[in-house]
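Side project, low priority. Logging it here so it doesn't get lost.
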Amino acid sequence: MSSKTENLKNKIMAAVKANDSNIVMTGMLVSVVKKGSFFSPTLEVQLSGRVDSKGDIEKIEKIAAEVAGDVAIVNTLRFKC
């Protein structure tokens, strides 16, 4: 499962970087973690850090949701004032 989490994380970061709008990430972290029990694990994508504008938060969350599919997204991104 660790290779699946690493692949998902890399795909999300690549999609955010490839987006043609100018998203400025001051310090963004994408983590993919396993949740649930040993016999029925599920994945969760966690977005954290800072971006330059509030609109970028929504763009990043939308991109992550498109790439992740049915994987839950937890977004704690903040924009710097």
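Brief comment: Strands lie at 25-36, 41-51, 72-79.
Revisit when time allows.
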